[in-house]
Amino acid sequence: MTGFDAYQLPEEHQEIRDAVRSLCEGKVAPNAAHADETGEFPQASYDALRSADFHAPHIPEEYGGAGADALATAIVIEEVARACAASSLIPAVNKLGTMPLLLAGSDELKRRYLAPVARGDGMFSYCLSEPEAGSDAASMTTRAVSDNDHYVINGAKRWITNAGVSEFYTVFAVTAPGERSRGISAFVVEKSDPGVTFGAPEKKLGIKGSPTREVYFDNVRVPADRMIGKPGEGFKIAMRTLDHTRVTIAAQAIGIAQGALDFAKRYVQERRQFGKAIAEFQGIQFMLADMGMKLEAARQLTYAAAGKSERGDADLTYFGAAAKCFASDAAMEITTDAVQLLGGYGYTKDFPLERMMRDAKITQIYEGTNQVQRIVMARELLRG
Ligand code: CAA
């Protein structure tokens, strides 16, 4: 790790970082510009990550996975994001989609659905938001109606990351209308279930290689045993999931920022103006110092939150929100400054920094805007 570590990572975690970095420099980074230009899903990144078991590293060994802890998973996502932010959504969204199962699914359901994800036979997306229910997730209207041993799902979900390329979806739907958050339940839906269709890919500012689409449910019949947890538990499962996975968005943000800082650092040492490398000017040095300082503060908070995620600490809600909010704000500042350090070159597509700046922006928005994170933090502080 470059930077200013306050503590030493466990050797095992350092080895994971080295292995992911080496894989990503060879087989993921080369796909980043193409995925950004074409909007095509980076299949080569998925194949490379699958070959080394980094595509869904968090899945426990008992379900056929690599059994990475929350810190190791964060490091994998961070390192993939350093090379290609869109590719980092493969391990990140696999964790997001499967976390409800891991937290509340029956053993049978976990065995059925975690094993194929661990094998790399399918990815798992998370369907919470709707066109009219974004920050106010509990106001969703997608409905699941009990019908003998099945539920029939109707509605539309929006902003679904990796929609269409994922085989499996955790879908939150209202089973008891009028009860708001207490009337929501969670289900596993398969892409192949009759009645599941997808909207056109959104045209986005960044993370273009990761498809974002609407998902429609038209009388989709799912067996009742595909409910995750009990009826009415869905909203709490959704929120607890986000407590854990906001840490992974923080990891993605610091990975993007590290990629930008590494590139800008090399550039200012090579670029000569006024007869010397621009890295020799104090104005440039102060910018680099601030970028490194913010990045390391974000990393320390993210790793602390990962520890809390691993232990399931009661204050994870606060730390997950704080890490996501701080790291994504830092990533936006660092990538913007990195573009500035390259001047006109930073503004062109001849260099990767404008892409990194565009990719960083989404980390301030998804898995809850940073305004929502501040609501969550303030509530926790006041409650405490
Ligand atoms: N863990 C467990 N339970 C929780 C919880 C948590 N972290 N947060 C809330 N709850 C419980 C509450 O205790 C409460 O339970 P009771 O009814 O028993 O009292 C219940 O859930 C309702 O909680 P609130 O009253 O706090 O709910 P709210 O309607 O006020 O909403 C909110 C709070 C924090 C604003 C929430 O709606 C929220 O986080 N919104 C943002 C949603 C979000 O992050 N969306 C991102 C979608 S995923 C994505 O972006 C990925 C992708 O693929 C693009």
UniProtKB/TrEMBL annotation:
<dbReference type="Pfam" id="PF02770">
    <property type="entry name" value="Acyl-CoA_dh_M"/>
</dbReference>
<feature type="domain" description="Acyl-CoA dehydrogenase/oxidase N-terminal">
    <location>
        <begin position="11"/>
        <end position="121"/>
    </location>
</feature>
<dbReference type="InterPro" id="IPR046373">
    <property type="entry name" value="Acyl-CoA_Oxase/DH_mid-dom_sf"/>
</dbReference>
<dbReference type="InterPro" id="IPR006091">
    <property type="entry name" value="Acyl-CoA_Oxase/DH_mid-dom"/>
</dbReference>
<dbReference type="InterPro" id="IPR013786">
    <property type="entry name" value="AcylCoA_DH/ox_N"/>
</dbReference>
<keyword id="KW-0560">Oxidoreductase</keyword>
<dbReference type="Pfam" id="PF02771">
    <property type="entry name" value="Acyl-CoA_dh_N"/>
</dbReference>
<feature type="domain" description="Acyl-CoA dehydrogenase/oxidase C-terminal">
    <location>
        <begin position="232"/>
        <end position="382"/>
    </location>
</feature>
<dbReference type="InterPro" id="IPR037069">
    <property type="entry name" value="AcylCoA_DH/ox_N_sf"/>
</dbReference>
<dbReference type="InterPro" id="IPR009075">
    <property type="entry name" value="AcylCo_DH/oxidase_C"/>
</dbReference>
<keyword id="KW-0285">Flavoprotein</keyword>
<dbReference type="InterPro" id="IPR036250">
    <property type="entry name" value="AcylCo_DH-like_C"/>
</dbReference>
<dbReference type="InterPro" id="IPR006089">
    <property type="entry name" value="Acyl-CoA_DH_CS"/>
</dbReference>
<comment type="similarity">
    <text>Belongs to the acyl-CoA dehydrogenase family.</text>
</comment>
<dbReference type="InterPro" id="IPR009100">
    <property type="entry name" value="AcylCoA_DH/oxidase_NM_dom_sf"/>
</dbReference>
<protein>
    <submittedName>
        <fullName>Acyl-CoA dehydrogenase</fullName>
    </submittedName>
</protein>
<keyword id="KW-0274">FAD</keyword>
<feature type="domain" description="Acyl-CoA oxidase/dehydrogenase middle">
    <location>
        <begin position="126"/>
        <end position="220"/>
    </location>
</feature>
<dbReference type="Pfam" id="PF00441">
    <property type="entry name" value="Acyl-CoA_dh_1"/>
</dbReference>
